[in-house]
Amino acid sequence: MALSFIEGNEAIGRGAIAAGCRFFAGYPITPATTILNTMLTLLPPLGGICLQAEDEIASIGACLGASMAGLKVMTATSGPGISLYSEHISFAAGSEIPIVIVDVQRLGPSTGSATRGADGDICFLRWGNSGGMPVIVLAPENVADCFTLTMHAFNLAEKFRCPVFIASNKEIGMTRQSVDPDALAKPDIIRRTPPPADKPFLPFQIDEGQRVPGFLPIGADIPVRQTSSTHGTNGYITTDPQEISLILDRLKNKLEAAVTEFSFYELLGAGQSETLLIVYGVTARAARAVYRELKSSGRPISLLILKTLWPIPAAVIRRAARGVKRVVAVEMNLGQYVWEIKRILADQQVDFYGQMDGRLISPQKIQETIING
Amino acid sequence: MVSLLNNARPPVFCPGCSHERITHTLDKAFQNMGLSGDRVVMVSDIGCSGLFDTFFNTHALHGLHGRALTYAAGVKLARPDLKVVVTMGDGGQGIGGAHLLAACRRNLDLTLLVLNNFNFGMTGGQYSATTPPDALVGSAFLNQLERPLDICRVAQSAGAAYVTRCSAYRKDLAAEIQRAIEFEGFSVLDIWGVCPGRYTKKNRLTPKTIDDVLAGMPPMEGSVAENFRLEYGRHYRQLSGKLKPAPEPPRIEAEFQPPDQQRRELILLGSAGQRIITAGEILCLAGLTAGLNTTQKNEYNITVMRGPSISELILSPQEIDYTGIERPDVIVALAPEGVDRRRQIFGQVDGNTFILKAADVEVPACKARIHEVDLISQGIKKPDWALASVGVLAKFGRIINTEMLAAALKIRFKGKTLENSLELVEKVEIG
Fold first, then answer.
1. Distance between CA A217 and CA A230 in Å, rounded?
2. In B, residues 8-37, which contact A (CB 8 Å cutoff)?
3. Burial of A277 (0-12, 13-18, 19+ CB in 10 A)
4. Is the full-model pTM beyond 0.80?
């Protein structure tokens, strides 16, 4: 076994390349800048494009253009940049443009602290787009996840034609870690599906058995339309309520009804305990330490580490919580995802510990929350 | 010569709108160039100019207000073979000003048609970035307070190599649009027209008065010689074509036995310029040469040449989960800036912690064992202090040993730097 020593942001860049990303546009922002640096090192020699755009709006805008021209695209920023991405996140969601968006979260609100970690954007990523269409959000906990989940993110963006977020954190992105490159999980590559050749092309037509329209790139042999306006299957503006609701209902269902196909998680010690700890992101690392410590004590816990956050993997959460007396949710914010957990586990006791002070949540704090509950 | 107009969707502009005239003129330019719809991309945004993409049987990308140039950049970089024509209004030009400047500076081969009718027609005739202060518009008196923008002078000073100001009624407009499309680089046409639905209801503006005003302005007619340069995409491909594939990160095989089999935590407390982060990395690489798992977390001020520099390292034969350090096994104290930033850690340590400190650095009173090294009297320069301290730890056999350190230096450095660093860790005295 040989080990390499890389940070989470570099692993995201390498995962993107492995997934077939050939276009990256970004704007420097701590703690996401080293993704831009990585892509600038990796992409141009492969014939790919790495653009440092004039601002975040242009970064994601250029990605949408390149994605519509058929390339696999990614952009990366932190919370203040996600704010600026918003109008184009709803464009990508509403007009089914595949894109991977990395949020290396830093302590907010607003410009906050550039070099302090947090998970303060978790609900913002889901709801920070006008119209409120669902998106996919994956949360890595370490360098290996950064690589593998980025590959999954590209696959999901291609398969479902939607924005897919990587919700990283300064504490993962800028922390270097030894990793065995040969042990990294590398999922098979998925590419967007072309439309059937035997029918006239309509840009938003759904074929039988399909959940998303077949994709033709701008630049194909026949003209391809893309629009941010409310559109019918032909890609032209429509005011027909039935046509509108057909498309918008589909945008919701194509992701929410499919979440079991991409519910990434880890469940440790299932059924062995009265307490279930639920965490995601870098906090999972402290939670693992607690799990190990308590395993050998008289009060073992179960631990659910969520790696798919949106759409909510409700079935996973319900299954993990079956029979437990108490659920403890811990987040690097003042309480966001816990409200989803409370909604899903309405009949169960759900306690919460949150912390927003720029420091990692320590195993000790988690253990205190569990023991003092 | 085949028209690219979409017969199923004829223009829907107000009677007398110059946008309709431009629609037909643009089609004429496409026809004169013999372009088919699959070779052309119409990119548009919000406002009446944003209807353009629907009138043509071409590729189309319609998006948010002022952002058309951003999508166009992505399309053109991905598909340099396509003709990309962007339509924006004076409103979109105002809200997307940063994108116009960037497009001018970048010189990607796009053609921008600004359909300038001096107001926001679609939302009620509010003033835009080009509305004259004496016009009567839907923003009460506000346009009297601001000076209109000269799109062409801005474009020219931002580096656009092709800039034309003209009337929508200009007789040879189709030929001028063709010249702009054929120009290899970013071209801007500021096309003045009338908005009968809003603007000309209260303001006198006719093809004749547009001509009169234009005649009184310095001409802006196509090529801007001082801005000529290589097109962005061509230049990008030229430069990137020479690059060799980036190497994979080094893979490090375990070849040594570590001094012990415990999880060890270490904090380097220094200041900018002491190469704290590099020393931390080398210490981790040394761990890797003995098969240890490692993590490195750094902290430094955004003004990178001043202030504290801190590196937190964990080396462990087990998987490392939590990367926070509350009670380090080793603290290396090399500058007051770093010590001050982590002052509280000294209150948490006990006799199990070993502090290695530079002779001139004070640390708070604590229970740890303290070892002092006088790096100044050894003639070691500040940028080498952190690495020299790692050398001291290796000589003590704390966390790493000297053979692990030498191997790590050989992974990280080459040539003269390697020689110097090997010599440094060899000669440093443990004090």
1. 20
2. 9, 37
3. buried
4. yes
